Amino acid sequence: MPDEERPKTKTLDEAEKKFSHVREYLVKLQERKIPQPDFYEDIDRSFGSVKEPNLIYAVGDPIFIHIYKGESGEIEYNVIETRLEEDEQELYDKVMDRLVDLAYLEEVPPQVNKIGKVLITLLDKAVIIGKKDRSFLNPRINITQEQYDKIKYYLLRNRVGYGKLEPLFYDPHLEDIHCTGIGQVTTIHKIFGLVHTNIIFDKDQSLDKYIVDVTERVERPASDAKSVVDAIMPDGSRGNFIYGRDISLEGSSFTVRKFAADPISITQLINWGTVSCELAAYLWIALENGMNLFVCGETASGKTTLLNAIAAFIKPDDKVFTVENTPEVTMPHDVWQHLVTRESGKDSDVTYLDLLIAALRSRPNYIIVGEIRGEEGNIAFQAMQTGHPVMSTFHAGNVQTMIQRITGHPINVPITFVDNLNLCLIQQAVHRDGKFIRRCLSLSELERYYAPEDKIITREVFTWNSIHDTHLFRGLFNSYILEQKIAKILGYKDPRLIYNEMDIRTKILERMIEEEIFDYNEVWEVIKAYHYKGAKGLPFKL
User: Fold this and answer.
1) At what angle do helices 86-102 and 115-126 cross, to 10 degrees?
2) N or C: which end of the chain has fewer CB within 10 A?
């Protein structure tokens, strides 16, 4: 998400008074006989149950989003932003030329997020509002306040922002942005699913230029010589760009997976039904006591979101290393070493393997690998064997598929080593009541290697009931990890007393939801308080 937060208009009347483009848009809706939308300063997931949405919500002045169901039944996502008329475009070009002349007056800062302030300073030196500049040397261009606001918006949007996609990057409710060639840009909305935007690339030249401009800004320029580019955007989003019709027949294309500045908390995921309080309490005990865990699932199943949420269960004093090729994992811990691969096809590349080996030499309490796909998996299992807890995401739809992939090429972990992994959580996007939701389908314990049949004995301790949309704890008084691993670590004389601790943590999570503690950092503070002071440290009574 962009660094600077924009102020938000609170009512539709206020938006109409302040912004001519909002007034003009509402008039066009009337002409098309579309009822006036309801206005919201912000929206939440409860809006997903609305069958015929017709609403406008604020993203940040002067940007607004109109969501409605079109005649074809598809959800339309219309960006309402200020437009430059033909004469205003000429004025904008004139001001840009003037800025070039004045550029020598300001030093360009090395930090990208500070360039915008320099551009505004230059703009203020290039124009004057509402009166004529009588200075003989370098007279400023006379413009109105409305023209100034439009020029400032487009100056920042085009020079330090994301051009015509800028509104999509400001919208916190979007997950992915897709362009599959000439035509409409589509996006995945966290509430409404796949939506079709009113942002269109109508020519190859404009789409090609957009991709070249964006990739040059992140120093990974796309071209005929390098047609496929993976890049990290300035806000941390991950972009994949495909340049040219010779390999993308509908025209150049791109996909951007948006970066969320604030991770989603475990209580929010519980509130959405992704996991249950009981399941989360089990994970809390497991991660606090150094169990190895893979969060598995298919693409866009919410693996990294869940990984971020449960990372808060790792002991607050632990030294945590994260290893990723794209920075998506966020840790709240004070001692956090964030390692990112460097892959450019040159001798100076730093791979997953290199970073994992470096992490092992640093004696961390926990190693989190963004995603295991290749030979780095072998190093991860070696880390587990040497007593370094590991947590990672992994592409697999069930436990057996995970084991097959781990033991097959290119990971090649011997099956006798696989039981070093303690837990496998399966996450999936499922279709329910006409919409896609993310659910933890199961949580399994990997108990031991069974030589006579050359396989890993697994035990499913949680399973999702698709009919009632609930999670069933099948591991009560039957959990190998809780009773034979963790209870022994904690010194329980009766291993079954560990379930009492799990009940307490279940109640803590339930109370946090009752108190509406959903902010990631607030949840982290409650977890820390319980770790250091027990129930006495909690901000509420159990």
Assistant:
1) 100
2) C
Contact between 40 and 46 (Cβ < 8 Å): no
In the chain, what are the domains? 86-163 (no CATH), 172-260 (3.30.450.370), 266-535 (3.40.50.300)
Query: For position 138, what pLDDT does the model report?
Result: 66
Are 228 and 211 in contact by the 8 Å Cβ rule? The answer is no
Encode pLDDT of 214-235 as tens digits. 999 888 899 999 999 988 888 8
User: C-alpha angle with apex 475: 472 to 479, nearest 5 degrees?
Assistant: 155
Measured distance CA(250)–CA(181) in Å, rounded: 5
List pLDDT tens digits, range 273-297.
999 999 999 999 999 999 999 999 9
Which tokens go with 310?
């449960």
- What SS3 class is residue 365? coil
134, burial (CB in 10 Å: exposed 0-12, middle 13-18, buried 19+): exposed
Instruction: Return left, alpha or beta for 163; rule: phi > 0 is left, psi -120 to 50 is alpha, else beta.
Output: left
| 58 strand-pairing partners | 64
Confidence of residue 431 (pLDDT cuts 50, 70, 90): confident
Residue 348 has pLDDT above 80, yes or no: no
> Which amino acid, one-letter code, is at 398?
N
Tell me the whole-structure pTM to 2 decimals. 0.85
Mean pLDDT confidence for 32-61: 93
Average pLDDT, the chain: 92
The answer, yes or no, to whether residue 260 has pLDDT greater than 80, is no
**Buried b or exposed e, range 357-367, using 16+ CB within 10 angstroms:** eebbeeebbbb
Q: 517 pLDDT exceeds 80?
A: yes
**Cα–Cα distance, 208 to 34 (Å, whole number):** 35
Cα–Cα dist 511/535, whole Å: 12
The closest alpha carbon to 390, from 440, 282, 335, 318, belongs to: 318
Asked if residue 291 lies in contact with residue 486, where contact means CB atoms within 8 angstroms, the answer is yes
Element (H, E) at 461: strand 455-465
Q: For 393-446, what is the HEC assignment?
A: EEECCCHHHHHHHHHCCCCCCCHHHHHHCCEEEEEEEEEECCEEEEEEEEEEEE
